[in-house]
Design a protein that fits this description.
alpha/beta, 20 helices
Length: 493
C-alpha cells in the first residue's frame, strides 16, 4: 500500500513539497523545477508554501522551520529528516481516516462503533465510506490468491501491512501502544536471551512494534492460522517461546499459538535477525520455491553480468538461497521509514548499480514466474528494491561486469595515495576497482597532472586532491561508464 494514501490531498501535497526540499542540495530548488516535479500551478505552489508554514508554526518541534519563495527559489530553512518524520506523524494523527483505521484494526472489540461515532462527531455514512477506503488500501490479504493449492491465511498479510504502516509513521518517534511498553520490553529481553540475538536499536524498534501489533490483533480476536502453508517444528527453544505467549499475551487461547510463533520466526527471518528457523513449508510451496531457486541459480550461473571466475557456483547458490529465503518476505514486512517516492525509485538506484538492478529485476521475474506468485503490482517494486539491497550486501563488488577500474597517480602533490583510495571507496558507491598502474583495463586515470598521450582511459585531473568538491563529478563519470558497460553486455547477450 501507499503510506500517504490515507492522508488528505492537502497533507500529501505538504509532505511532497517538504520531502522534495529536505532532500535537495541546500534545501532549495528553482520554483519552475518544483512546479514540474510536483505537477503544481504557481497558484497551488503559493498556497502549499503558505499552508506548510502555517503547520510548522503550530508544531513546537518545527517552530524554527521556515519555507518561503525568494529570488526564483523555494527555500526550506532548518529542515531535517527527523523533523520530516515528526511532521508525517502529526498530519496522520489529526486525520479522521487514520482514527478510523486505528479503531477498526486495533481497538474495536464487539459492536462499539456507536461510541466512536459520538466521540469523533462523524456520521455513520461517512464512517463507512472512509472505512471502505481503508479496506481498499489494505488489499494484500489477496496477495496469495493465485497460489493454486496453497492456502495462506488472510490475517498474515493484513498484519504485515499494519506492522509496516505503524513502523513507517511511529518508529523512533513515539509508541502507538503505550499500554504495551512493559510487556514489550519483557518480550525483547526474553527473546534476545532465548535466541541469543544481538539487536541494534533499530532492530529492537522493529521487533517491538511487530510484537505490539501482533498482541493488539490477538487481543481483538483476529486469529491467525499458518498450518496449511508453514508449520513450526517443536523443540526446546520453540517451547519456551510458546510458553511466553501463553503466559503474557491476552486472549491467546482464541488463536493458534503455534501459528503466532511461526509468524514471529518469519518476521525475524525477513529482517535478517536470525539465519535459521525451525519451520517446515507445505510440500507444494516447497516444490515451487525449490523450482524458483533452481531457475535463479541457472540464470546467475550463466548471465554475462557476472564474472564467473570471481564468483564460484557454490557462492552463487548461497546468494540465491539467501535472496529467495529473505527477499520475498521483505515485500510483506516493508520496514522502512523513507518515503516511497525515494525508496521505490529503482531508476535512481540503477544510476549507481545498473548491473545489480538488472540482476534484481530478472531474478524477481523468475521468482514470480516459477513460484506462480502473482503479487499486486505495487508489491513488485518492493521486491525488486529488496533484491537490490540484498545483492549489494551478498555479492562481492568485483563480480559485476560493470566494474570500473580507476588508476590513481598523484605524483606531484605528495598526498598519500592510500588516503585517496580510501576516500574513493567512501564517496563512490561500489563497483570500483582501484589500481596504481595503468593497463589496458583502466577506465579512469585520476591524477594531479596532465598526460598528453593518454588515449585509452578517461583522464580526470585534480591539482589539489585534498579538496572533495569534485567527488560528485567523478561519481557521474563512473556511473556513465557503468551504464555503457551494461548496455554493451545486454547487446551481446
Amino acid at each position: 500500500m501507499s503510506y500517504w494514501s490515507l492522508l488528505e490531498q492537502d497533507d500529501q501535497a505538504t509532505l511532497a513539497l517538504v520531502w522534495l526540499l529536505e532532500s535537495a542540495p541546500g534545501n532549495a530548488m528553482l520554483v519552475t523545477d518544483v512546479m514540474t516535479q510536483l505537477s503544481l500551478s504557481r497558484y497551488k505552489l503559493n498556497k502549499s508554501v503558505e499552508e506548510s508554514q502555517k503547520i510548522f508554526n503550530e508544531m513546537p518541534e518545527l517552530i524554527d522551520w521556515q519555507i518561503e519563495l525568494k529570488h526564483g527559489l523555494v527555500v526550506l530553512q532548518n529542515a531535517t529528516f527527523a523533523g520530516f518524520r515528526i511532521l508525517q506523524l502529526h498530519l496522520l494523527k489529526r486525520n479522521m481516516t487514520y482514527k478510523i483505521l486505528f479503531f477498526e484494526y486495533f481497538v474495536r472489540r464487539h459492536g462499539d462503533r456507536r461510541h466512536f461515532f459520538d466521540n469523533a462527531h462523524i456520521s455513520q455514512a461517512r464512517y463507512y465510506a472512509l472505512r471502505s477506503q481503508i479496506q481498499t488500501e489494505f488489499h494484500t490479504q489477496d496477495a496469495f490468491q493465485n497460489l493454486v493449492g496453497v492456502s495462506v491465511h488472510p490475517e498474515f498479510a493484513k498484519r504485515a501491512d499494519l506492522t509496516s504502516f505503524c513502523y513507517y509513521y511511529f518508529s523512533g518517534i513515539e509508541s502507538p501502544f503505550p499500554e504495551l511498553e512493559e510487556v514489550s520490553s519483557h518480550f525483547l529481553n526474553f527473546l534476545a536471551m532465548t535466541l541469543k540475538l544481538s539487536l541494534t536499536p533499530s532492530q529492537r524498534l522493529k521487533l517491538k512494534l511487530f510484537f505490539q501489533v501482533q498482541v493488539q490483533r490477538i487481543h481483538g480476536f483476529h486469529d491467525l492460522n499458518t498450518r496449511s502453508s508453514v508449520q513450526l517444528e517443536s523443540n526446546q527453544t520453540t517451547g519456551f517461546i510458546v510458553n511466553f505467549y501463553n503466559h503474557y499475551v491476552p486472549n491467546i487461547e482464541n488463536t493458534d499459538v503455534s501459528s503466532e510463533v511461526t509468524y514471529l520466526y518469519l518476521f525475524l527471518l525477513s529482517q535478517k535477525m536470525i539465519d535459521d528457523v525451525p519451520l517446515k513449508l507445505e510440500t507444494k510451496l516447497t516444490k515451487r520455491l525449490n523450482l524458483a531457486v533452481q531457475e535463479s541459480q541457472k540464470y546467475l550461473n550463466q548471465t554475462p553480468i557476472i564474472n564467473h571466475q570471481r564468483l564460484s557456483v557454490a557462492d552463487a547458490d548461497h546468494v540465491i538461497d539467501q535472496l529467495l529465503t529473505i527477499g520475498n518476505w521483505l515485500a510483506f514486512f516493508n520496514m522502512t521509514t523513507t518515503p516511497e517516492q525515494y525508496e521505490l525509485n529503482i531508476d535512481r538506484l540503477a544510476q549507481s548499480f545498473p548491473g545489480i538492478v538488472s540482476l534484481a529485476r530478472e531474478l524477481c521475474e523468475i521468482a514470480q514466474r516459477t513460484s506462480q506468485l502473482k503479487l499486486p503490482a505495487d508489491s513488485v517494486p518492493k521486491i525488486v528494491y529488496n533484491f537490490v539491497v540484498l545483492l549489494i550486501d551478498l555479492l562481492p563488488t568485483d563480480v559485476i561486469e560493470d566494474q570500473v577500474t580507476v588508476c590513481i597517480d598523484f605524483g606531484q602533490s605528495n598526498v598519500p595515495v592510500n588516503y585517496i583510495e580510501n576516500l574513493l571507496q567512501l564517496h563512490i558507491l561500489g563497483g570500483v576497482h582501484v589500481t596504481h598502474s595503468l593497463t589496458a583495463a583502466t577506465d579512469i586515470y585520476l591524477s594531479d597532472t596532465v598526460v598528453n598521450d593518454l588515449n585509452q582511459a578517461i583522464q580526470i585531473t585534480w591539482p589539489n586532491p585534498l579538496q572533495t568538491n569534485d567527488w560528485s563529478a567523478l561519481n557521474d563519470v563512473v556511473n556513465q561508464l557503468k551504464q555503457q558497460k551494461n548496455s554493451k553486455i545486454a547487446g551481446n547477450w
